Amino acid sequence: MARARDVFSLAPTSGPTRAPETPAVLALTRARTLAIRMLRASLTAAIVAVAYAGAARVGEELEFPSAPVSVLWAPNAILLAALLLTRRSRWWLYFAFVLPAHLLVQLPLPEVSPNQVVIQYVLNCSTALIAALLLSGFAPDLRRIDRVRPAIMFVLLAGVLAPLSTSVLMAAAFFALRISPAFWLTVLVRTLTNSFAILTLVPLSLHVAAWLRRLDHSIQLTRVAEASLLASSLASLAILAFIAPHVLTEHALGPMYILFAILLWATVRFGVVGVCSSMLMLGVLGTSGVVNQTGTFTGGAPVQDDALWLLLVLVLTCVTLLLLAAALEERKSLEEARTATEVQQRQTQMLHSAVLASIHDQIVVLDQSGVVIETNRSWRRFVEHSARQPFERAHVGDQYLQTCAMGAEAGDPVAAELLACLRDVLAGGSMRRLEFSRDTPDGLLWYEMSVEQLHRPEGGAVVTRTNITATKQVLNQAREQRQQLAHLGRAAVLGELSGAFAHELVQPLTSILGNAEAALTILSREQAGPPEIRDMLRDIVKDDVRAAEVIQRLRSMLARGEIQRQPIDLNQIVRDVVALARSDIISRNVSVITQLDPDIPLVLADGVQLQQVVLNLIVNACEAMSGAPADDRRLTIGTTPIEGGRGIECFVADRGRGIPADQLERIFQPFVTTKKHGLGLGLAICRSIIEAHGGRLWAESAEGGGSVFRFTADGAV
Amino acid sequence: MKVMTSARLLIAVVDDEESVRVAFARMLSASLFDVDVFASGQEFLDSLERRRPDCVILDLQMPGLTGRDVQRQLALGQIRVPIIVVTAHDQPALREQCLADGAAAYVAKPLQRERLINLINDAVKRPPALRS
Predict the structure, then answer these.
(1) Is B110 on the interface with A (CB under 8 A)?
(2) CB contact, 8 Å: A543 with chain B?
(3) Which end of chain A is more exposed for a tag (fewer CB within 10 A), N or C?
């Protein structure tokens, strides 16, 4: 696998979909790729070699008067720039390509010995190699000279150490081979001339390469114009100063001063590139002026002194300006980074404010001491329009704890609670909430205030005020519904009690009346017994009728008048009640199975009363199963058509203890109950309701345990 | 009167509560009627094959077959017996249903002797029309 990956990475042109290749083909592809790369690298090296040769040629022309070195020796700098821009593994290519170039330029010269040529080649390459190695060691990733520290490293290592060390070696070699006796002069001149070339050409090459690597190559026209103006002024002044034959000797210092001003201009406006190109131009013109004995630096002194001084001035000026340019560029990039950071910070801040402003809830942010440091738009609008309590009117800068404390002292319980929450959270407590209501022109509104820690090192709190009226209403509705449910049975008691009682009281009254009248009839017909007995019986009849009338009146008073009968879907009633009792059913761990026949007819009935019956039967069934294992707590409720589809039977089956056979009828009597806390009225009321609808309600024992309650109702048609 | 002179009328009393049906029976016997008492609707329906009463006093609220059920069975069997419905649980809607189904009368308990006798005499004079 690793082998295959190697192949692909070396030969990216062969896609993974291609058929497996023989080792020979792979080797061929690999070799071809390598060859292409080598060809490209060699081409670059050749270009460098040509540049080297050109620079060497120019250098030979500008030979120092009293030492076997050039006044302007650029080949080493060109080689160094090439090394810095190339991988270390390719460096040998440059050394190899430079050799013929070097020999080509040096060998034809009559005054140069072969020894000298070899020494020069070795030490030239060494200069570049030493500088490149030192720089990669001490200033790795040197792409541009745009920071002070790498600039200093560059000046010291590449500008001084590398040329100095090789120059000492060269001078020693020349001295030993008797090529030149001037040891120190050779060291000094070669160091200076190499140093100058390196200090100007290498940064320039690095910056041009960096510019070429950039994606954006646009150049402003004004910059071009400024650069042209700069170059032409510099060139004309330099020509005046160095080349023009003694025209300005008497006023020689004038153009020199102006030259410095122009160099500063180049430094400030064009940075390292400006410094290096300007200095290069000055170097070329200056040295040629000196060598040809023209210009300002020539005069009474010997030529070698003039040249030395010129080189010294050029190198020192270049070092100074290069460091200045690097410092300026560093500062500029720092500022740019800072500006970018600031812009980013401003954008982040704007985003945060926008988010805060867009939140519908009212938000107040407090610092660790409780002072308001931020409010959102919703809060400010609330403060402006509807805040009425002092603690609701906090502005930025207010001590919110104090405001709440004042509200609490004035007797506002909400302020007091909020104060406690705030203190708790500011002391490091977790989130707190409080709810309260306010009477408003729009009615009673509910709010929630939450206090949360502000998650930052110095602490603080975020207070959020939310209108929870809608949520509250839903909750209240649910609670009311639950209460209604619990109340349903009890409320029904009074209204329906009369029905159950009437039956139970009227029956004995009927028999008393019947017996009394029977006795009265017999006694009257046979004229037997004392007349007082007949009077007594008449009184019994009279009081019985009176008692019946009282019951009748009580009933009509308590009963809700006529039953409101409407065509009703009993299935819907069952579904409604099951939904209504859901929480009760769930809390009792009972599972409900409904078997509702969709083909049952509508019934003419009072829906609320039928709900009461179904609910009562469901609740009874649940209670009957409270002792059963949870798996067994199954309640089945269903409907079926009867009497050929004209009537309905509804049943509620449980799997509880069941009811003894002799109790099946008795449980419908008032005050008979199997429950500990029951009144014993529920089933009596249910039966009276069902009977009032013309139906029947009875209980059966179910097969396999438990009981079934069934009731019937007439269809509406 | 024809009723009083020819033969005594046979009245059936159907009520699940013993004290009530006994009291009714005593009152009717004292008023010179023949009386049969039944504790449930089924008992009464079963007796019809042996002897048919001239009038039945039928309680509405009973376990098993209710008064309404009995009334329906009589109609189904095309048995023309005048029915006086008595109930301890007076409901206007039920009253309408019973009367519409051909009951001779619908009265709330308790009811006095005189009224009962009048109702019986009226019911017997006008035998119920058969409902299809």
Answers:
(1) yes
(2) no
(3) N
Distance CA B7, CA B53 (A): 12
For residue B30, give Cα distances in angstroms to A167, B8, B24, B34.
Answer: 160, 12, 10, 10
- Strand pairing of A707-714 and B10-14? unpaired
Interface test with A, best of B27, B29, B94 (most A CBs within 10 A): B27
CB contact under 8 A, A503 and B61: yes
C-beta separation of A224 from A107 below 8 A: no
Dihedral (CA of A654, A656, A661, A664) sign: negative
Buried b / exposed e along A97-117 (16+ C-beta atoms within 10 A): bbeebbeebbeeeeebeeebb
Pairing state of beta strands A591-596 and A603-605? unpaired
- With CB atoms and an 8 Å threshold, state whether A499 touches B89: yes
Give ∠ CA A330-A333-A336 in degrees, rounded to 5.
150
Query: What is the per-residue pLDDT across A607-628, written as a single tens digit (0 to 9) for each?
Result: 878 888 898 899 888 888 888 8
How many CB pairs lie under 8 A apart between chains A and B?
102
Mean pLDDT within A400-405: 89
* Least Cα separation, residue B126 to chain A (angstroms): 25
Residue A482 contacts B, CB cutoff 8 Å: no
Count of CB atoms situated within 10 Å of the CB of A197: 27
Nearest alpha-carbon partner for A425 in A473, A391, A471, A464? A464
Cβ distance of B30 and A508 shorter than 8 Å: no
CA dihedral A340, A345, A350, A351 (to 10 degrees): 100
* CA A658 to each of CA A297, A445, A661, A710, B87: distance values in angstroms, whole numbers, following the listed order: 129, 51, 9, 14, 31
Q: What mean pLDDT value characterizes chain A?
A: 84
Nearest to B66 by CA among B97, B35, B32: B97
Averaged over A215-235, what is the pLDDT?
A: 90
Query: How do residues A421-475 score in pLDDT, each as one tens digit?
Result: 999 999 988 888 888 888 877 788 888 999 999 988 998 999 999 988 888 887 7
Task: Calculate mean pLDDT across residues A631-638.
Answer: 90
Handedness of CA B62, B63, B68, B71 (dihedral sign): negative
Query: How confident is residue A488, by pLDDT bands cut at 50, 70 and 90?
Result: low
Contacts of B38 (CB under 8 A, 6+ apart): B12, B13, B14, B15, B21, B44, B47
pLDDT range class, residue A17, cuts 50, 70, 90: very low
Q: Is A664 on the interface with B (CB under 8 A)?
A: no
Query: Model ipTM?
Result: 0.87
Q: Other C-beta atoms within 10 Å of A3: how many? A: 8
Tell me the C-alpha distance between A254 and A615, whole Å: 115
Q: Are B84 and B56 contacting, i.e. CB atoms less than 8 angstroms apart?
A: yes
Cis peptide before A108 (omega within 30 of 0): no
Check residue A671 and give left, alpha or beta (phi > 0: left; psi -120 to 50: alpha): left
